[in-house]
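ugh ok fine here u go
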Amino acid sequence: MAIEEPSYRVLERDGSFELREYEPYLVAETHVAAGFENAGSVAFRRLFRYISGHNAAQQQIAMTAPVTQTRGERIAMTAPVAMEADGDGYRVAFVVPARYSRKTVPKPLDEQVEIRAVPARLVACWCYTGRWTESRYREHERRLRELIATRGYLVRGEPILARYNPPFTPWPLRRNEVLIPVERGRSR
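structure:
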């Protein structure tokens, strides 16, 4: 059975690079005060509890992909999603299945879990396989930033780690991505 992902259209593709146009979607998100490699594990338990029925509707919610993580300033409900850095930690998020709207998505009972709308956006993506280490992520983030600059795009958000596989997936088979929100620059 296929796992649902946010809907997007690929505008450009060149090896590991893609330029994607995402449609709006919702995420269930939490902040964790942990380092890069531990943030996902800490947050996963909290978010998994929410989709397992710890919500106002006591309803199970289907697992989706990717689980995202990002570092940076705490962003309001309309900001981009992912594992994002958040001052002293990271924001980690599960994508909410598309069948839910802002009005119909079950309300989290844990005040550390928020539902956030992610607007339509243009995103530069670098795909890679392997381990979820910070050094591998930074290596691929650097490559993506180089491509963004050479193609004349302007960065419009924090980099995001997107993980598509459960931890028991052998590392050579894991699908990972670095995502960076962008806009087209004046010079191309």
